[in-house]
Design brief:
Blueprint: H1 5-22, E1 30-34, E2 42-46, H2 52-67, E3 72-77, H3 80-86, E4 103-108, E5 112-115, E6 130-136, E7 142-148, H4 149-170, H5 177-205, E8 209-211, H6 221-230, E9 235-239, E10 243-248, H7 256-265, E11 271-272, E12 276-280, H8 283-294
Parallel strand pairs: 8-9
Antiparallel strand pairs: 1-2, 2-7, 3-4, 4-5, 6-7, 9-10, 10-12, 11-12
Amino acid sequence: MEETLDGARLHTAEHMFARALQEQNLTIHVRKADTYRADNVGKVYIKEIISIDSLFSAEKAVNSKILEDLTVKEEKFDNLEKAVLKNPKLRFNEERIDENGEIRIISIGEYDFSACKHLHVKKTSEIISFSIRRVSYLGGETEIDFLAGYDSIKFLLDIKNSVLTAAIENHFIPEEIGAYIKNEKYGRMEAEKEEKDLLSGLIQKSSGIIEIKGVKISKFYGEVNSIVRKNPEKCIALTNGQQIMIIKGKDCRIDLLGIGKKLKEKGFSGSVNESIINGRADENIIKELKGLWKN
């Protein structure tokens, strides 16, 4: 892992971001921080779910501290006890630290003190800017992508330009962007509902394999399951050319285990049981399935 200035900006900003969250009286446990990356995008994984409002408040606090031009220093201690005695606000990961070994502490003014081995900037002004780029709550934790330096500024300018372009095209002022997004989201939800209603009608009438191009078939799992429960004699097969999903009702006589076995002989690696076949499938698998279905 090469430690670059861009990585040092990201890593120092990550320290400040964690402190800014703690300053909101939040309990956080950083599972992993990844800042020395080729794409200059920082990633931090927090074991707790952190609200978007708290994340944005922390982002604002980090940028405020950047402007204060705090001095970043390193100091080494013989053990953890001495480090905590000197820095009562010390942050450290108990799983990764040797309490009796030498400990390197990074201090950011009087704002943050953290045990760390990586490269940091000398002054917070070197970070230039900090911005959150993406937030995900998959897996019961908070995963955050963030930017620092000129990458952050470019990202913010791109967002501003996108908002202004949308404002001009749709005749609203940027302050109304929240309402605009809400309306756009509502429109997409209505379109998806129409799409699902249309497919539901096709499924009800068809006894063959339904092909839908350019659409994730997993999004229709709920509709297919609902139809099968109401019509236990049915067996429904969907494909989009890259994936197959077959769900059968309890009274259906089609042998999915037999079909699944023959598909696996052709290289299918998805899941197969008595009531469902689901997984990625190339053209050969789908062609084999069509032949088996006709027979």
